[in-house]
Structures are given as structure tokens and as C-alpha cells.
Amino acid sequence: MSAMLGGVMDRLSGMVGPKPRFKPKLPPAFQPEESARRGGTHGRTVRCFECNHQQAVSNSATSTQCERCSVYISLVDYDITSPWSQNIRTRGNVHIRRRGEVVGCDIACHDLEVSGKVSASVDCSGNAVFHQSARIMGSMYCRHLHVDKRREVIFPQGVVAESADIYGTVRGNITCSGTIRIFKSGKVEGNAVAKSIDLKDGGVLSGRMSIQPKIDITLPEKKGYLKKD
Fold first, then answer.
1. Where are the domains of the chain?
2. What dihedral do alpha carbons 183, 189, 195, 196 form, nearest 10°?
3. Residue 20 class from Cβ within 10 Å (0-12 exposed, 13-18 middle, 19+ buried)?
4. How many CB atoms are closer than 10 A to CB 97?
5. Taking the CB of residue 168, how many other CB atoms lie within 10 A of it?
6. Rounded to two decimals, what is the model's pTM?
7. Distance, C-alpha 153 to centroid of its chain
8. What one-character DSSP code corresponds to residue 161?
9. Is 193 exposed, middle or buried (0-12, 13-18, 19+ CB in 10 A)?
10. Which tens digits make up the pLDDT trace of 39-84?
11. What pLDDT digit, counting tens, does each position of 65-77 carry?
12. Beta strands at 187-189 and 169-171: parallel, antiparallel or unpaired
């Protein structure tokens, strides 16, 4: 009898034993937010408006806070399709469409794509692509500069970038920590300082050329702010 009871109890204990742990199936592109903030494939690096501190944020975020000075940083994208008269302050991307027009304003953004009319000051922490002619007030810093063929971009106080592809005309001094490529239809009316300069047949550089092995273009973090521990 005791043996029979033991067998029954063993079967019952097996029926009510711990259930296997459920593991939800996640989408193939899923990435934890912390991983994205550390600069994974679904993250990006943005620069603070106030202190120039750079930090990684998730591509899905719409805002963040500077880790160093605590200033609020919008990450909203702007799509300009008509005349615009207000300052833009974001580390999202700004696209000025063919009928868009930004004149006399300040633009702070991550990537900038210009297909319309621009005459403004620009603080760009990402890439700057010009499909149309433009005039940039003051100096401009960007990761990569691209100027289309038959377009003229004027930088009265110069432009600083990691790299540049010039198919049109740049008027102003240009400094790159990497390579400046001036293509057959390209022209730089100013001085060029870079790690290397690739001047294609037909390309024009009318100013002085300076090749330097190490060029630090990192914007210094402003004094007076303490980074949080």
C-alpha cells in the first residue's frame, strides 16, 4: 500500500511541479534602451547646445537631458516645406524642402539636408548636405559636408568637418580632420586644411593647401559645468 501511495504522490508532484519559464519572443530588431544609449546600432551621438558635451541616445527618443549640464535637449525632427521664421533648436534632423525657406534664423540640429533656401546660422552635430545653394552665417561645424554639383555654399567664417565631398562650390575656408574630396565639377574658393586632400582632375582649389597628419576638430566642453558621477 505504501509503495502504491508513493507512486501516486510522485506522479502528482510531477503534475504540479514548477512550470517552465516563459520567454517572450522579441522582434529581430529589438535592442534594450541601455544598449542603444551606449552607441549601438540603434543609437546616435548628439552634442549639447550649451556645453558641447557629447552623449549617446536612442534613435527612438524624442528628448533627453545633458549628462553634464542637465540642459533639456529636444530630439524632434523638422520638415520645412514653407517659409520659416523661428529659431530651430533640436538635435533631431532638419530637412528644408524645395519650397522651404529659412532666412535670418538660428538652426541647431543633428543632420541638416538643404533642398530649399537657407540664409542662417547653423550648429550641426551631424552631417550637412546641400542640394541647393546657401549662405551660412558665422562658422559651421559638421561631421560630413556634402555640396551638390552646380550649387554654391558660402561660409563667411569657414566650415569645420570630419570629411567633405565637394561637387559644387564652397566659398570660405575649410578644415577637415579627414579627407577633403574636390570632384571634377567642384571648387573651393578659400584655404583648405586637412589630413588629406583628394583633388580630382578638373577640381579647383584657389586658396592655400595645408596637409596636417593630426587635426583635432573636437569642440571643447565649456568650463563651468561639472559632469555628473
1. 33-69, 76-211
2. 30
3. exposed
4. 15
5. 20
6. 0.79
7. 20
8. E
9. buried
10. 444 688 889 999 999 999 988 899 999 999 999 999 999 999 999 9
11. 999 999 999 999 9
12. parallel
